From TrEMBL:
UniProt keyword Zinc present: no
Residue ranges occupied by any Peripheral subunit-binding (PSBD) domain in the UniProt entry: 160-197
Lipoyl-binding domain mapped to chain residues: 1-79
Lineage, broadest ranks: Bacteria, Bacillati, Actinomycetota, Actinomycetes, Pseudonocardiales
Coiled-coil spans in chain: none
GO MF annotations in UniProt: acetyltransferase activity; lipoic acid binding
One Pfam family linked to the record: 2-oxoacid_dh
Native organism: Amycolatopsis thailandensis
Protein's name according to its UniProt entry: Dihydrolipoamide acetyltransferase component of pyruvate dehydrogenase complex
Keyword field: Acyltransferase, Lipoyl, Transferase
UniProt cofactor(s): (R)-lipoate
Family that this chain belongs to: Belongs to the 2-oxoacid dehydrogenase family.
Length: 449
């Protein structure tokens, strides 16, 4: 008898409770293999592709793209025994623990799957049984009904389009919200995007105001708060109202740093390595944190302790199409300038592509945010929860500066440091900011640290 399993939404990172379905990679009738990617979801931390831990035939997709689903809720049904026959036992069966290990998926899941027999006719109860391992097992009937699919979300029209089509639309500057898909179910195709780019597409006038969130009477559009934006808002509110923020500012001449950067670009050691002001700032933060460990500590309210970290997991705030994310460079304090440059390049590239994993954004100790890339002079950043300080880099600008009693045009940068006054006193915060400033004003100072 065919054996049906419900694939639950996995807890892809500690503490996640829900995720939004972005796009399905399979459809009913598709044959899938173990650990094949079947769906892309957006959690409160990142976009994640989920593999399925079984082989079989997809029988039903239980949720639609755009829906928000709680962790553990079933999102797909699969027939793991499409031929109606149990899989034959291997010639030399391994020990029980080894067999169980062999059947584990490559990606862990937070919830066990629910195993059911073929769905009963209307009016009949659907017997359900728990599976001890993802192999063909005789189900034990139990009077538990299969969980219904989550209700369709209200408000906030989500365009139905696969990731390649979304990328094409982004590259061509086409707003998917303004299109009506011509494929089955209103899915937007590549042809729809190309037609819109050429000015011949049919606008999404047929989309109801309830689905789009737009009200012609008020000329306003309402978008549900979810995903990365929802998580960022909650974290910032928590931080702003639990940690007493203090922000200090420092303006420095970084002409020597910029000249040193040009020398490194021409050196054989740094050939092909992207060295930016952020690279120098990252190195400066790691060096300065060793002299002022308070900025790399954290207030533990529950334990009533201050926890000092003997390592620097450096967070880098990055603006992405899905919102603000803060991936970490692990053990940044143990890296050379070149290693930091390479790590930062990889980290920012992955973030901009929206492929930062949830695990990469956990466990930071101190953060850098660079508003200078937007031409902004400075800011008063909010500390990330679980940390005690965040450094903000402004834009580097040609500015009149007094040098040896004469006014000259120099490369000038404004720094700002926000810190948790429960952990960091004004003296420690000022000393740390002064150290970072000194290292950026003259990189040769680093040899004295």
């Amino acid at each position: 008898m065919p054996e049906y399993k419900h694939f639950p939404l996995a807890d892809t990172a500690e503490g996640l409770t829900e995720a939004d379905i972005i796009a399905w990679q399979v459809k009913p009738g598709d044959t899938v293999t173990v650990n094949q990617i079947v769906v892309e979801v957006e959690t409160a931390k990142a976009a994640v592709e989920l593999p399925i831990p079984w082989a079989g035939v997809v029988t039903e997709l239980l949720v639609e793209p755009g829906q928000t689903v709680e962790v553990g809720a079933p999102i797909l049904t699969i027939d793991v025994d499409p031929n109606g026959k149990a899989a034959p036992a291997p010639a030399a069966a391994p020990a029980a623990e080894e067999a169980e290990e062999e059947m584990k998926p490559l990606v862990g899941y937070g919830s066990k799957a629910v195993v059911t027999q073929r769905r009963a006719r209307k009016g009949a109860a659907a017997p359900v049984a728990a599976a001890p391992a993802p192999v063909a097992v005789a189900p034990v009937p139990a009077p538990v009904a299969v969980a219904p699919a989550p209700a369709k979300p209200k408000g906030g029209y989500v365009p139905l389009a696969k990731p390649p089509v979304r990328k094409l639309a982004k590259d061509l500057g086409v707003d998917l919200h303004a299109l009506t898909g011509t494929a089955d179910g209103g899915v937007i195709t590549r042809d729809d995007v190309h037609a819109a780019a050429n000015g011949s597409a049919t606008p999404a006038a047929t989309v109801s105001t309830v689905d789009s969130g737009y009200d012609p009477a008020t000329r306003e559009r309402r978008v549900p708060i979810k995903g990365v934006r929802k998580a960022t808002a909650a974290a910032m509110v928590q931080s702003a109202y639990t940690a007493p923020h203090v922000t200090e500012f420092l303006t420095i001449d970084v002409t020597p740093m910029m000249e040193f950067r040009e020398k490194l670009k021409k050196s054989r050691e740094f050939a092909g390595v992207k060295v930016t002001p952020l690279t120098f700032a990252a190195k400066a933060v790691c060096l300065a944190a060793k002299r002022t460990p308070d900025v790399n500590a954290v207030w533990d309210e529950a334990a009533q302790e201050i926890v000092y970290k003997d390592y620097v997991h450096l967070g880098i705030a990055a603006a992405t199409p899905r919102g603000l994310v803060v991936p970490k460079v692990r053990d940044a304090d143990s890296m050379s300038l070149k290693e930091l440059a390479i790590a930062l390049t990889e980290l920012t590239d992955v973030a901009r592509e929206g492929k930062t994993t949830p695990a990469a954004m956990l466990g930071g100790t101190i953060t850098i945010t660079n508003v200078g890339v937007f031409g902004v002079d400075t800011g008063t950043p909010i500390i990330n929860p679980g940390e005690s300080a965040i450094l903000c880099l402004g834009a580097i600008k040609d500015t009149p500066w007094v040098v040896d009693g004469e006014i000259k045009v120099r490369k000038v940068l404004q720094l700002s440091l926000s810190f948790d006054h429960r952990v960091v006193d004004g003296q420690q915060g000022s000393e740390f900011l002064a150290d970072v400033g000194a290292l950026l004003a003259d990189p040769a100072v680093a040899i004295t640290y």
